Amino acid sequence: MPTILRKGPYRIYFHTHEPNEPPHVHVDRNSYSAKFWLKPVSMSRNRGFSPRKET
Fold it and tell me: What DSSP letter does each residue of the chain carry, written as one string?
């Protein structure tokens, strides 16, 4: 799982082999996880993040 960016408690990464899905990235913070499609940018999945921005 190559990491694209680490910013504070956040880690943004992708899996190298997910052939049946459109381009996307995963975002983790502690035990929270989300997946975002890249074209168009939209949230695919959210596990634990609140709807408001956390710092």
Answer: --EEEEETTEEEE--S--TTS-SEEEEEETTEEEEEEETTEEEEEEES--SS---
Question: CA 26: distance to chain centroid?
Answer: 2
Q: For residue 54, name the pLDDT band (cuts at 50, 70, 90).
A: low
Asked, as a colleague might, if the bond just before 40 is cis with ω within 30 of 0, I would say: yes
Residue 8 has pLDDT above 90, yes or no: yes
Residue type, 11: R
Nearest residue to 8 via CA among 24, 25, 30, 37: 30
